[in-house]
């Protein structure tokens, strides 16, 4: 059902290898990433280490490097890779007819967080 998904705009608003942020009223900002191969992922914009803004990190493959202390975070699972431990919530995302949709209930959850 379309009502379960929030249309946040065209895929063209994010160039490959970049991210944009979506403010959530009363909750954590969400970061939407586009990889160089054209995949899209959405995570809470808060590194599991010390809350660095992941949207400002460097995207390589399916991973973003946090801009603060260079932890590597999987865009698919939100988990820190390598020696580092921690996880950031992933927001379910889908692409339909050139538009980006986030699962509404997952976004609303962030408001209560
Ligand atoms: S805040 Fe992200 S690595 Fe430290």
From TrEMBL:
Domain Rieske per the UniProt entry, residue ranges: 5-102
Keyword line: 2Fe-2S, Iron, Iron-sulfur, Metal-binding, Nitrate assimilation, Oxidoreductase
Entry-linked InterPro entries: Rieske-like_NirD, Rieske_2Fe-2S, Rieske_2Fe-2S_sf
Highest taxon in the source lineage: Bacteria
Record PANTHER family: 3-PHENYLPROPIONATE_CINNAMIC ACID DIOXYGENASE FERREDOXIN SUBUNIT (PTHR21496:SF23), FERREDOXIN-RELATED (PTHR21496)
NCBIfam families: nirD_assim_sml
Protein name: Nitrite reductase
Phylogenetic lineage: Bacteria, Pseudomonadati, Pseudomonadota, Alphaproteobacteria, Sphingomonadales
């Amino acid at each position: 059902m379309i009502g379960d998904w929030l249309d946040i705009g065209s895929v063209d608003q994010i160039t490959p290898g970049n991210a944009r942020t979506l403010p959530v009223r009363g909750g954590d900002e969400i970061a939407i990433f586009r990889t160089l191969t054209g995949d899209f992922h959405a995570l809470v914009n808060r590194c599991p280490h010390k809350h660095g803004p992941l949207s400002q990190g460097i995207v390589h493959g399916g991973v973003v490097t946090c801009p603060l202390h260079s932890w590597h975070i999987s865009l698919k699972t939100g988990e820190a890779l390598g020696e580092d431990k921690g996880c950031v919530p992933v927001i379910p995302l889908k692409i339909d007819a050139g538009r980006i949709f986030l699962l509404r209930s997952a976004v609303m959850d962030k408001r209560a967080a």
